Structure formats: C-alpha cells, structure tokens
Amino acid sequence: MDVTVEVQSEDLHSSHSDVRPLIHDRDPKRVNKSLKVTFEDVIAEPPSVRSFDKVWLWSHALFEVSRLWCYRFISLLLAVPVSLAAGLLFAVLSCLHIWLIMPCVQLLLINMHWVQTVWGSILNILISPFFTSAGKCCGRITILLSKDEDRHTQTRAE
C-alpha cells in the first residue's frame, strides 16, 4: 500500500506527520493483474445460440452485483484478521532474519574462512580438471535441427 507523508513545517522540532493512504490505485504494483475478471471472461454466447436480450442483461447485472457484494462481504469478515496474521508473520520472519539468521551466517562466514579456502582448493585440484576435459571432449559436438518434413517422413517410411 502506498502511503504519502506530509510533514507540517510549523514547528521545526516536532515531527508531526499526516499519513493518508492512497485509495484510488489499490494495486499500484499490479500484483493481482490476473484477477481482472469480467462477465465476458466467464460467460459468453456464440453467435449461433443466443438467449433473450433481457436474460443477457439481467444475468450480466446479477453477475457483477453478486461478485462485488460477495467480495465486499467476505473482505469485511476476513481482511482485518488476515492482515493481522500476515503482519505478525512478516514481523516474526523479519525479526528472525535480522537478529538470528544473518548474525549466524556472518559468524560462520567469518570463522569458516579456512573451509572456503580448502573447498576452493579441492574444487580446483580434483573437480575442475575433470569438467574442463569433459568440456573439451564435448565442445566439438554440433546438433543440426531442420524443419524438412518430407525428409523426416521418408526416413520413417524406410
């Protein structure tokens, strides 16, 4: 959600801010671009078979109204609890990442520098020559793909 912050310049020592969410564009990063479902995406009549015009208009209206109001009702019930749970989950994950995972990774990287050196030496001495040789052996292999269907069908027939 994009948030605008306007700082009042009346008092230089206070940090009074007016935070107002932007409600016009609620999906600015286009996360839910696949959910732009309209009536025509779901229900369509071919030109050969058609219902009465009033049936088409009423079904279109009922589809749009039921989709809108069902979404509003379900979001009324679920938006706040799901937002709370997502906020708590992201807060816990952020805290674990910042205060537990990254310090442990940095500690390992600092204290295990000798392992990086030994592992790099093992790769350079044992494994790198094998893959270099395999690459040189297979480097001259060429594959030609053609779209000649007549030749392909003749090969099958023989």
TrEMBL record:
- GO biological process, alphabetically ordered: caveola assembly; cell differentiation; regulation of cytosolic calcium ion concentration
Task: Locate the transmembrane regions by residue number.
Answer: 76-102, 114-132
**Mind naming one GO cellular-component term on file for this protein?**
focal adhesion
Which compartments does it reside in?
Cell membrane; Golgi apparatus membrane; Membrane, Caveola
- List the Pfam families hit by this protein, alphabetically: Caveolin
The family database entries (InterPro entries) matched by this protein are listed as:
Caveolin, Caveolin_CS
**Single GO molecular function:** molecular adaptor activity
The way it spans or sits in the membrane comes to: Peripheral membrane protein
| This protein's UniProt keywords | Cell membrane, Golgi apparatus, Membrane, Transmembrane, Transmembrane helix
Do the record's keywords include Hydrolase?
Answer: no
Output the superkingdom of the source species: Eukaryota
> Family, per the entry?
Belongs to the caveolin family.
The function of this protein is:
May act as a scaffolding protein within caveolar membranes. Interacts directly with G-protein alpha subunits and can functionally regulate their activity.
Indicate what this protein is called per its UniProt record.
Caveolin
